[in-house]
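Re-running Lipoprotein to confirm reproducibility after the cluster update. Everything else is unchanged from the original entry.
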Amino acid sequence: MVGCHPPNNPPHTDNEKEGVLSIEKFLSNIPISDVDLNDFPYLKVPKGAKSTNENICENCTFIFYLDSLNKIPVKGRVFSAMLEQDPANNFEITTYYVIKNITDQVSTLGGIKVFEGDVLPPMDESVKDNTTWRLNLKDNSHVSSYLIRRGESNIHISVATNHIPKLQLIVVESKESVH
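Result of re-run:
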């Protein structure tokens, strides 16, 4: 997978103590997608699920996980929602089903899955203080991270599955550090 770093070979960070990687270094190996996109937040709610608690935050900062230790701050337009079972649906959705659906959508849009695994909530107070939007993580939360790199922006997508039966979805369109 392009842009992925095996657990034994994490990406070089500018600040190893905090595990914060520069956006430019991270983006340098990710292909640019020219696929036509839907309207923001670009993804469709998986069949059988519904989106609740939707929020949009303009010009906000979000911490995007590259792997279990490394993360980058991304700033831009943030969409946040909870995905849950639609009571009108006649079959039960699973975490696997929702993650696979989002993975397939991101792939169709020319993006990649960057990481899927367990992470710890940011403990560094400076990261918390400089972040206006973040995943509502618990200890050992499971996160899936995706990226769609565009010529004019980058779309960072994160799904946290520690809220079962709900999943938290965050989409950030960032125009900073595009190249």
